[in-house]
Design goal:
Elements (H helix, E strand, L loop, with lengths): L9 H9 L6 H17 L4 E7 L3 E8 L5 E3 L5 H4 L6 E3 L12 H4 L6 E8 L5 E9 L8 H26 L1 H4 L3 H17 L3 E5 L5 E4 L1 H7 L20 H14 L3 E8 L5 E12 L5 E10 L1 H38 L4 H22 E2 L2 E2 L5 E2 H9 L10 E5 L3 E2 L1 H20 L9 E8 L3 E8 L12 H13 L3 E7 L2 E8 L1 H4 L2
Parallel strand pairs: 15-17
Antiparallel strand pairs: 1-2, 1-6, 2-3, 4-5, 5-6, 7-8, 7-11, 9-10, 10-11, 12-13, 14-16, 17-18, 18-20, 19-20
Helix pairs in contact: 2-5, 10-11, 11-12, 11-13, 12-13, 13-14
Length: 502
């Protein structure tokens, strides 16, 4: 391998990479076309134009994949860019450099790779033009090598041209007529848009409103310049809107808020206001561009859905109450079924608590899946906790859950807790339960009992064990591991994170 960077500091190499304006849409489009040509010429499903940065490689041209970057540690191109000629890997699974690479063992499951180095005019390696296949290849013929080399030269020719144009004062300097032409084009586009369009100076003072705004408010644009646009906001929305706008201007971050805007006929309409800063090359803000989109009907629909959701939530809770009542009646009239009925009632109550946790918070329905596993466990296990909150300890990562997973999780936890009360750690005063949650490739929930009576593996599985298996394995597609240790039962459940929450 020829190390072309041996005499070049990494900081200098990265500075050269930063001089290429590769983020421009027009540049990306042309590099994408060259990548497509490389894929066709080499009969490969994937082709990439890569730049290898300090900690990652970015793909500035792509064909056959939406992947935009990977870590430098996983980069094939970090090796290819150091070579004088094309690097060919016939089968990555058999190459000791790449056999355990996550891009080989996982998506996109690289098998074949060929990369032609991209070198700047100073001789600095930048990355490569590469083609990738998901099946190994016995050969990479001379015509394909020549095509890849030629296309890599075309890539560098374009990159160098854009680099020169970016740094050229002539290219950066727009004439007054060009600027005026761009401004006219912007106004025509803004007036044609259904949204209300506005712009502001870097300090947050508005200086432009499109025709849509003027028609909506019934006032000329000048009536809204500076801070006068606030006069059209509903009285309750003026302060929140002003605070949010000031925060965006001071931080340089995006602006987004919903508020009511007075129409020319006096009616207030809900709008979604969004603003984005336009940055100069040095990072400073040249101005703000924003829109106001009428969302009045969507807000009304959302409120109606909110009412329906609360009504449905209320009815479901009533169903749990009715079921509980029916079980209580059965206990009174059929005392011989009391033990079984009490277990059934407790399971129903556990499901009811899970429903309340996921479906409502503060009396309001949850319309987005932002409930957390730790919160559900605390809710379900509160009746078994001691006053100091030390008998049952939950630790580790917290993960999102939603209404699909809450019910089977509730059954799982309820059955383990019930078993612990009858036979395990919670049957004695010194017993305790530790619950460890780990979130990696899967979510792992480990239930650890200690301080209870000696534990032995039962000869046969009971109904509770069947419910646990049904909840974790059949409903959530997870796995269960039981460890019947003498000092206490351990149960480990592993479930995919995307099953716990959409």
């Amino acid at each position: 391998m020829t190390d072309t960077t041996s005499d070049i500091p990494e900081s200098a190499r990265l500075a050269v990479i930063g001089a290429y304006p590769v983020e421009a849409d027009a540049i990306s489009a042309q590099l994408d076309r060259l990548a497509r040509l490389a894929a066709r010429a080499c009969n490969a499903p994937i082709a990439l134009v890569s730049f290898v940065e300090a900690d990652r490689q970015i793909f500035i041209g792509r064909s056959g994949t939406d992947l935009s970057e990977t870590s430098r540690a996983d980069s094939f191109c970090a090796h290819a860019m150091l070579e004088a000629d094309c690097t060919v890997v016939p089968d990555a699974t058999r190459d000791p450099r790449f056999s355990d690479n996550p891009l080989v063992t996982g998506a996109p499951f690289i098998r074949f790779y060929a990369g032609q180095p991209l070198v700047s005019r100073e001789g600095i390696p930048l990355g490569s033009l590469c083609v990738v296949d998901t099946v190994p290849r016995d050969s990479f013929d001379e015509d394909q090598r020549l095509a890849l080399e030629t296309l890599a030269e075309a890539v560098m020719a374009l990159l160098e041209r854009w680099r020169l144009e970016e740094s050229s004062d002539r290219y950066l300097a727009l004439s007054k007529s060009e600027i005026a032409h761009l401004e006219r084009r912007f106004q025509v586009l803004a007036d044609a848009m259904p949204q209300l369009v506005w712009s502001a100076t870097p300090d947050g003072l508005t200086d432009y409103f499109n025709e849509g705004w003027c028609e909506f408010t019934g006032q000329p644009a000048e009536a809204s310049y500076g801070r006068d646009w606030m006069q059209f906001l509903h009285g309750e929305d003026k302060v929140p809107a002003a605070i949010r706008w000031r925060e965006a201007v001071e931080s340089g971050g995006d602006y987004e808020i919903e508020y009511r805007l007075r129409r020319h006929d006096g009616e207030y309409r809900w709008v979604l206001a969004r603003g984005l800063p336009v940055h100069l090359a040095d990072g400073s803000i040249s101005r703000w561009i924003g829109t106001c989109t009428d969302i009045h009907e969507q807000k009304a629909d959302s409120e109606r859905l909110d009412v329906l959701s609360r009504e449905l939530n209320h009815r479901i809770k009533n169903i749990f109450a009715v079921i509980g009542g029916l079980i209580a009646m059965t206990i009174r009239t059929k005392p011989e079924f009391k033990a079984t009925a009490v277990e059934l009632r407790d399971r129903v109550l556990s499901l009811g608590r899970a429903h309340d946790f996921v479906r409502s918070r503060g009396g309001q329905p949850i319309l987005h899946p932002h409930a957390r596993l730790t919160g559900l466990l605390n809710t379900l296990l509160a009746p078994y906790q001691d006053a100091e909150g030390q008998r049952i300890v939950i630790r580790g990562d917290d993960v999102a859950i939603d209404d699909r997973s809450a019910t089977p999780l509730a059954l799982f936890v309820h059955e383990l807790a019930t078993n612990a009360v009858k036979y395990g750690a919670l049957s004695e005063g010194a017993g305790r339960i530790d619950i460890a949650i780990r979130h990696a490739a899967q979510v792992e929930i480990e239930w650890i009992e200690s301080g209870g009576p000696p534990v032995e593996k039962p000869e046969a599985s009971g109904f509770g064990s069947s419910l646990v298996d049904m909840s974790i394995v059949r409903q959530l597609g997870g796995t269960l591991i039981y460890d019947w240790r003498p000092d206490g039962l351990r149960v480990t459940a592993r479930i995919a994170a995307n099953i716990l929450a959409r």
